Amino acid sequence: MNRSFGLTEFQYLLTGAQWTIMLSLIAFTCGGLLGLVIAFARISRFKAVRLAATAYVQMVQGTPLLIQLFIAYFGLTLLGATLPALFAAGLALTIYASAFLGEIWRGCLESVPRAQWVGADSLGLTRTQQLYYVIVPQAARIATPPTVGFMVQIVKNTSLTALVGFIELARAGQLLNNITFQPAVVFLCVGALYFAICFPLSALSQKLEVKLNAGRSSLQHS
Prior knowledge:
Elements: H1 7-42, H2 47-61, H3 65-75, H4 85-111, H5 114-122, H6 127-157, H7 169-180, H8 183-221
Helix pairs in contact: 1-2, 1-4, 1-7, 1-8, 2-4, 3-4, 4-6, 5-6, 6-8, 7-8
């Protein structure tokens, strides 16, 4: 006799949603820290550093996230390293997020008007001081909307981790469907939970973008 979908099953989906949020936070936090290093390396004065950062970004962006997950989970096993699903999934998503966030932030740093760089240099500031006091505060304002928007992509991409055995929201839905044989109900609930997580982030991204554009327009007309 098949189980029917009820409160206990929905609570199981909520647990999966909590793991989705946790994995997203791990990927965004660790990927953000590494992405910041990549962004600064991409605008480094040293050619070798720029080339190494560019190669890293192209390699990560040029391969599917699914392949990166398989390498992190199965590939390291061949070297004798047995990784928990959470660690492997977090590692793959961190690498994935770092490349994309690094490029987003690199573009925002370079979008700061050249006059700001020249002005900071004329004040006798070191490269680090130029970035810290002048460039990064302006770039951070520009980077906020696309960064928040990318968080939505991270949340949705966590569904791929089900293929390496990590039980997040999508995998929890698959397991419940195998028990209840009620795909319409199960996956409607899964979709609703994803929407509940992603929609506030999407709305925040759009709001910040409108606010940023309004700020730019006021500055241009002042």
